[in-house]
Every structure is written in structure tokens, then in C-alpha cells.
Specification:
The chain is α/β, with parallel strands linked by helices. Helix 8 runs parallel beside helix 9 and helix 9 packs parallel to helix 10.
Length: 308
């Protein structure tokens, strides 16, 4: 399988330099990442919300090595929120954050990440929107969930992400569903070992459905993070079976992938949120998009060959 190889490459400085230098890379990256600055993405936000879609915005960047970089990441989100305030879109545009960007892996990282993310959550609440804490590799999750629980004391709409391929996730889902959390369920996009995660796609899909049933039947707000037509159909069936109205759950898909499906679901009355990343530190995010789906990798390879 190429996925683990690509994910390993996402941590390689040598591969980063090689791929970043390829002339075709920017053209392909632009499919998934529509800009590098807030000014670049504001027109995208206006266009997509004008078409009945909602968004979650991600300022890309994960490999933080200093507290100054973590502070800069916080400030980048505060700048984004300041611009969203002017657009007056409220909950139609929320934020997704990776706690690694806020210093989670540094010495004293748990407290540092909490201190940096709290002002972002506060600022988001002040303009009527919210923040979702993205899941990263399994070693970070206990810290992420603890920060999520702490933030929900003052900001109960703070969301979090769980990953179907991890063995622990069914228990996490039961706990989160019982306490009424906003939860995005994804399959998972990190290179996790067999000791902690399913490795077979069929097993991951089955786990996804089991976990999604738990969320739909619980007291929280499920966010269905998938491009898989079968899982989308199952999600609709589970929502109907649980008696959920269309505004009591939502679908989330990545910018640049299955855009027609975004519009179709929105036209049917579903809440459809587009995960939209921007920024200059795009490499890790881009490589995970290639690893997640063979079609993305084929698209990249064809582009490199045709432009070579």
C-alpha cells in the first residue's frame, strides 16, 4: 500500500524539498489549498457561503519547534477571526485547529497549547462561531481530549475530531456522545501502528459505521467527515433512524474533492461544511491528502508527467 509510504514522506525534509521544488507542485497544491493568506481565502469564503455551503478554516502548519512559532500560529487564527467578524457569517464559518501548531509537542506543551488555543476559542465565540480541535497521531490524543474537556467548561460548543481506524475510538465516541459534544468523525490520516489501529480498509469502514451509529443515537452533534458515497448514504439512514432533523448533524468534506457532491447535499437541505486549509506551510497537509485517496495520488502523478 502506498498510503504509509506517502505518510512517511510527509515527515521527510528531503522529500519536502524535492516536491516543493517541482514546477507542477503549486498547480496541484492549489486544488486542495486555495491560498496562502487571509486575503487570498476571503473571496473563497464569500463564494462558497454564497452557494449555500458552510466552512471550517484551517491555517496549515504542524511542525512547531519554538514557543514563538506557537504564538504566531495563535495570532494567525486571531487575524482570521478578525476578518470573519467583518463578514458577519457567524456559525457558517468555524475554525479547525491542530494543537501541535499551538506548541503541544514542546516542553510543557499541554499547558502551552491550552493557553494558546483558549484566546482563539474566546474570539470565535465572540463572533458567534466555534472551534474544532483536530485529531493528530494517537500519542497526542489524551492531551487533546483533556484540552477539549477543559474548553467546554466555558465554551460547550467546542468540537473535537475522532478517527475510526483507532481501536480506542469506539470508547471515546460513547463518552463524547453521552456528554453532548460536537464530534467530527473521520477515517484517519496518520501512519499508525497495528498495535493501536486497524490496517484494513474494510475493518476501518465497519468501525466508522459502528462509531457513527453511536454518535447519531447520542446527545451530541455529529459531523460526518467522509467523501465515501456509501458512508454518506449510511449516515443519512442512521440519522433518520435516530430521528435527527437535517440541522441536527452535518457533512464535512475537503476543499477540492467532490465539489459537485458538496453542492448536491446542500441543495437537498443538508448542512454541508467544506474543510478549507490555507497558508504557506502546506506540505504535511498536502501529503496526507495524497495518502488518503489513490485518486488524489494519480492526479498528482499525471500532472507531474504531463508537465515534465
Amino acid at each position: 500500500m502506498l498510503g504509509p509510504v506517502i505518510l512517511a514522506a510527509s515527515r521527510s525534509d528531503r522529500m519536502r524539498r524535492l516536491i516543493s521544488a517541482a514546477p507542477v507542485t503549486k498547480q496541484v497544491v492549489d486544488r486542495f489549498i486555495p491560498g496562502e493568506t487571509v486575503d487570498h481565502v476571503v473571496p473563497i469564503i464569500e463564494e462558497l457561503t454564497g452557494r449555500g455551503l458552510e466552512l471550517t478554516m484551517d491555517v496549515v502548519g504542524e511542525d512547531i519547534t519554538t514557543s514563538e512559532q506557537a504564538t504566531a500560529a495563535r495570532d494567525a487564527y486571531l487575524l482570521l477571526i478578525d476578518r470573519l467578524k467583518d463578514l458577519e457569517l457567524g456559525p457558517k464559518v468555524e475554525m479547525s485547529v491542530k494543537l501541535s501548531m499551538f506548541g503541544q509537542a514542546l516542553p510543557g506543551g499541554h499547558e502551552l497549547a491550552l493557553a494558546n488555543v483558549r484566546p482563539v476559542v474566546e474570539a470565535a465565540a465572540a463572533i458567534g462561531t466555534t472551534v474544532t480541535l483536530d485529531a493528530e497521531d494517537h500519542t497526542t490524543l489524551d492531551s487533546m481530549f483533556a484540552i477539549h474537556e477543559e474548553l467546554r467548561k466555558d465554551f460547550p460548543q467546542t468540537g473535537c475530531v475522532i478517527q475510526a481506524y483507532l481501536f480506542r475510538t469506539e470508547a471515546d465516541a460513547r463518552r463524547l456522545a453521552a456528554c453532548g459534544s460536537r464530534v467530527r468523525l473521520v477515517k484517519g490520516a496518520y501512519n499508525e501502528p497495528a498495535e493501536v489501529a486497524y490496517q484494513n480498509k474494510h475493518e476501518i469502514d465497519k468501525a466508522y459505521v459502528r462509531i457513527l451509529r453511536t454518535l447519531m443515537e447520542g446527545d451530541g452533534y455529529p459531523m460526518v467527515g467522509s467523501h465515501d458515497p456509501r458512508l454518506i448514504s449510511i449516515a443519512q439512514e442512521l440519522a433518520r433512524g435516530a430521528g435527527r432533523k437535517l440541522d441536527e448533524y452535518e457533512f464535512q468534506m475537503l476543499y477540492g474533492i467532490r465539489s459537485d457532491e458538496h453542492l448536491r447535499l446542500a441543495a437537498e437541505g443538508h448542512r454541508m461544511r467544506v474543510y478549507t486549509a490555507y497558508g504557506t506551510d502546506w506540505y504535511g497537509y498536502f501529503m496526507r491528502r495524497l495518502a488518503e485517496k489513490p485518486a488524489n495520488l494519480r492526479f498528482f502523478v499525471r500532472s507531474m508527467v504531463s508537465k515534465g
